[in-house]
Amino acid sequence: MKDYIIHDEWNIIEEGFDPELNRVSESIFSLGNGRMGQRANFEEQYSGDSLQGNYVAGVYYPDKTRVGWWKNGYPDYFAKVLNAANWVGINIWIDGEALDLAKAKVSDFRRVLNMKEGYLERSFVATLQNGNQVEVKATRFCSIVDDETGAIEYKITAKNFSAPIKIEPYIDFDVVNEDSNYDEKFWNSVDQSAFDGSAWVTASTKKTNFYVCSAMKFAVVHNGSELTLNPELVEKEKYASNIIESVINSGETVTIYKYAANISSENHKIDDLSSVANEQLAKVSSKGFDQMKKEQADAWANKWVESDVVIKGDVAAQQGIRFNIFQLNQTYTGEDPRLNIGPKGFTGEKYGGSTYWDTEAYCLPFYMSTSNSHVARNLLVYRYKHLQKAIENAEKLGFKNGAALYPMVTMNGEECHNEWEITFEEIHRNGAIAYAIYDYTRYTGDKSYLGEYGLEVLIGISRFWAQRVNWSEAKQKYVMLGVTGPNEYENNVNNNWYTNYIAAWTLRYTLESMDYVKENNPEDLKRISGAVNFDFDKETQNWKKIIDNMYYPYDEERKVYLQQDGFLDKELIQVKDLAKEDRPINQNWSWDRILRSCFIKQADVLQGLYFFEDEFTEDEIRRNFEFYEPMTVHESSLSPCVHSILASKLGMEDKAYEMYLRTARLDLDDYNNDTEDGCHTTSMAGTWMAVVKGFGGMDIKDEKLHLNPFLPSKWQGYSFKINYRDVVLKVDVSKHGVEVTNESGEDLDIIFKGSPITVEGKAKKEMAF
Ligand code: BGC
């Protein structure tokens, strides 16, 4: 845990330069716009420790699998988000010495991520080894208006000298991925060119053949007038730059305006890439930095109108939730159904930038509630488009007849995770994809999705479950053997309650959805059943048998569901009794010891009780919560939010708040000591859920929006907005009660604390607690 980020409601602020924290800060201060993103690497050269990261959405590399012992069924590769061209780089030399914060004496270092207006600012004073002192102020952003571009303003002031200055803005495609399995470079050189005031480099990925052209255009202003550049043009393989030499006198400022474009073959014809890049650069440079920055601020203001959560009386909490919302909006905009949300967004290489069950289980509600429904629909369509690959994925493991197993980790629908216990066993992910269809249709009311796309996906997943279970003579029940549940701290267990439950639930939901489509869109049912060759009698009867006879491990004595058959054989001890040095156990214990322990990485039985809350009594949920929460180490960032929501529902306000704090500032305070790898973007959506679904008690039951808010005692108030079926509601909770404002024209009937009320269009309702 670290505590160096200064608390502020709208800004993330770091003061003082600590090279030890550089990687963590590079993650936290990352920028993105849905199309591209980057870690907060410095513009000037830096010879200290750094993880270079520039990412272009959708561009990945299938890195050949590296495992100790090959197992049949392993995918051949692990898809990686690619470190792409460094487009922020500006080398500076003063009197022949490079400006490098690892070598200079640094003072007044300050980094600010302005979340309100969407830009990053960094300022410092550096005393070079030759005694020359410069003051630098750098501002940059990834534009959310012109989303293939970014802009930088870099100001250098000479404090105590007059000397020659050399400036080299560049594009460098000669980059590596730190997590490359075989230390390979993933980019092939295509071509590069440097011109007076601009340059571009095009490279293509090995194997996947994505082409990306990264280009820059820049201007240098000295003493208020634009310099005639007369640059030295540098063109090397995968690299292009301009070198400009001038003289800077004491007290003078030189400002470099650098505009960059990243144009990928995902969105443009390969032959057009450099001309599109030049067009984009001409467009943004003619707007100029200040105008672009103003447009950026206006566009972010609109995003905040839709998605802000305001917390009164707790600056740390306010900063935490805004940081999470900011990162989510930087990562995914929902405009492109080919894109998804990597667990680290654009903030690092870890988890390969690929799609996990995190999207369906954690991210969907945020996008569903803060944007129009097409954004969430695109996330679902992404999986529909991967259905055929999911069927092939299941076939590779021996399943047949259209059974679909969605991958644990994917870029293009193919599984690319290669640890047997996850690839083959962590099959609960399939259930989350079915659950998301349910979650989407109940929230948006868009049931036409079932006939259009959803039912086909549900049939594929249900066929998988029906083949994955087997009949146990001993138990006279259907069982599911050899699985890993959400708790990855046990593998190859039998009858993980959560997996069994979500499997049977999927079968049930598929049958219900089939009935719905039969009734409402019979043509769709005909089309789908023909396409998937559905045997109504045989398959539906088999599914019903499984639903009625699924085995759920249960402890009669404690009256709790068992995480798996053997759970009670473990030594049941509590996290509070662990020594401090043992935590986190995944960094201090052998894997063998972890697997045999009762400690739970993340919500497992409780994940099921959170998803299917309506199917259990409050007493049941409480008993299970009280049994499992003390054994949960929350070493996955996905965990505390689920516990927080359940604690809120159970009226355990202190616990709900404690768990909320763990997720809200997870990266800002580097809670798990791993933010240097990137931020936990998908769990940020969980934090949002902890406020809206937990403290705000937002839920959908029987086609009605429910609100059941309470005010955490540490706060004076909070408010959030949700877009429910195209009605925008603002919920404002304070010590005096709750105000629900309907910002749309149409009336909305909701259930407030169990009682029906109507919130008229363009009106406000005030309620006591
Ligand atoms: C969690 C998984 C999650 C993955 C990516 C792992 O640590 O156990 O549930 O999908 O991280 O966030």
Small molecules (ligands, ions, cofactors) in the structure? beta-D-glucopyranose
- Output the CATH class name of the domain at 13-66 and 77-307: Mainly Beta
User: From the coordinates shown, what is the CATH architecture of the domain at 13-66 and 77-307?
Assistant: Distorted Sandwich
* Morphology: globular
Percent of residues in beta strands: 25-35%
Notes on the protein architecture:
- The strands form eight sheets. Strands 1, 2, 10, 11, 12, 13, 15, 16, 17, 18 and 21 form an eleven-stranded antiparallel sheet that branches. A five-stranded antiparallel sheet has the order 9-8-14-20-19, with no helix packed on it.
- A hairpin with a 6-residue loop joins strand 12 (133-142) and strand 13 (149-158).
- The chain is 33% helix and 25% strand.
- The protein is an alpha+beta fold.
- The protein contains 20 helices and 34 strands.
- Beta-D-glucopyranose is lined by residues 343, 351, 356-358, 486, 488, 601-602, 636, 638, 682.
